[in-house]
Amino acid sequence: MDFGLPPIPDDAGELLDRVLAPLLQDYEDSFVRGLVLVQHCPDRVMDAPGRERFRQRLEEASAQLAAARALRAAAPTPMALDMDLIRPWHELVVEVWGLSAALRAAGIRP
Q1: Which of 1, 75, 89, 97 could anchor a disulfide with 79, C-beta 3.0 to 4.6 Å?
Q2: Cα–Cα distance, 66 to 72 (Å, whole number)
Q3: What is the C-alpha to C-alpha distance for residues 40 and 43, in angstroms, rounded to an integer?
């Protein structure tokens, strides 16, 4: 069936992987870093309920990331990721940066 779309170049999958692979690794690294920061975060920086909510969000995002990677690996053709999926991950990374800055300001260096 022809939808009037231009053909996808043969190297499009390779290009997509070269762009997405490091991005997804950056998300994973940030989520792991966020979990470490939450473990070392005192109440004066973030209260216990806030830490627990943040930890849960980091773990959920990590699971989503693992699922997205598995789906991409299993797909028979190159597959991108929807911005609606990635946007919350990016926002979470920004929150990790904010927590890191708050810990540094409090003199805590995990």
Answers
A1: 75
A2: 10
A3: 10
Q: Which two tokens stand for residue 70?
A: 């598995």
Domain assignment present for residue 18? The answer is no
User: What is the distance between the alpha carbons of residues 17 and 72, in angstroms, rounded to a whole number?
Assistant: 10
Give yes or no for a contact between 48 and 109, defined as CB atoms under 8 angstroms apart. Answer: no
Amino acid found at 37: L
Q: How many domains does the chain have?
A: 1
26 assigned to some structural domain = no
The two structure tokens encoding residue 13: 């999958």
Q: Return all residues near 92 (Cβ < 8 A) that are at least 6 apart.
A: 30, 31, 34, 57, 58, 61
In a domain, 2, yes or no: no
Q: What does the pLDDT look like over 11-65, one tens digit per residue?
A: 667 888 888 889 999 999 999 999 999 999 999 999 999 999 999 999 999 999 9
pTM higher than the cut 0.70? yes
Q: Which residue range(s) make up the domain with 98?
A: 47-104
